[in-house]
Write a structure and sequence with these properties.
Blueprint: H1 3-10, H2 12-40, H3 49-56, H4 60-67, H5 70-84, H6 90-95, H7 99-116, H8 118-128, H9 132-156, H10 164-176, H11 179-187, H12 192-211, H13 220-228
């Protein structure tokens, strides 16, 4: 680093800029946590800019300055929830040495994500039914699970494209690792570890079916239904 650059960083102007950025970061974090608190609050049914501003004790203009729009706020909120749910672990899925290991890590990562803020996730997805803006964000993120499952399935047969049965298997794996599955098992009394075991067991059967030769491949959905009846 040049001497001139060091002098610039030590100048009063640079110090003031750093302080302003730190203040903006703190305000941004407060707004995002206020949005999360609104979702966790059973008495609240509103995730409008006004409601978030009131909870965060800032003006609507501040929220627009930070996020640009409600869509920008929601996108940042999804990222905030992902960070709280340790979704950075998703990198481990693509670093796994085998498809089976990748699938296990995928199940574990999403189970950990859903368990971090289940009340918030439940409310957010319920709001998506009536709020198109939230619904689009939720749907886009749900599609990512199917994409991840597809990439894992491609590794099983070293192929660039999935056949129809494998495409259906990817959709089933996306469903198994979704919040609704996690929530149903949680409400049935299963612990977080038990949920991972249950989902992983079903997911492994789907992976095994999808990895088999087409002629020997049973219908994945039929296998899951058969196991659920035992």
């Amino acid at each position: 680093m040049s001497i001139g650059r060091i002098v610039d960083l030590m100048s009063p102007r640079a110090y003031r800029m750093d302080k302003r950025q730190a203040a903006r970061d703190l305000t941004r974090a407060r707004i995002l946590d206020a949005a999360r608190q609104l979702l966790a609050d059973d008495s609240t049914r509103d995730l409008s800019m006004e409601a978030v501003a009131r909870r965060a004790d800032v003006s609507r203009l501040t929220i627009y300055y930070q996020f640009g729009s409600r869509t920008g706020l929601l996108e940042a909120l999804y990222d905030h929830l992902a960070a709280r749910g340790n979704m950075q672990r998703m990198a481990e899925v693509f670093q796994a040495s085998t498809p089976a290991e990748a699938l296990t890590r995928m199940v574990s990562t999403f189970a950990g994500f859903w368990s971090a803020d289940p009340a918030v996730m439940r409310r957010l997805r319920a709001m998506a039914v009536l709020d198109g803006e939230i619904e689009r964000g939720v749907r886009a993120r749900d599609a990512r699970r199917v994409h991840i499952a597809s990439e894992i399935l491609k590794r099983t047969n070293q192929t660039k494209r999935l056949d129809a049965a494998q495409t259906q298997a990817a959709a089933i794996l996306g469903m198994l690792t979704g919040f609704e599955t996690y929530d149903a098992l949680s409400r049935s009394g299963q612990t977080a570890d038990e949920i991972i075991v249950t989902i992983a067991s079903l997911a492994e059967r789907v992976l095994a079916d999808a990895s088999a030769a087409p002629a020997a491949r049973p219908h994945a959905a039929k296998r899951i239904h058969s196991k659920s009846r035992k």
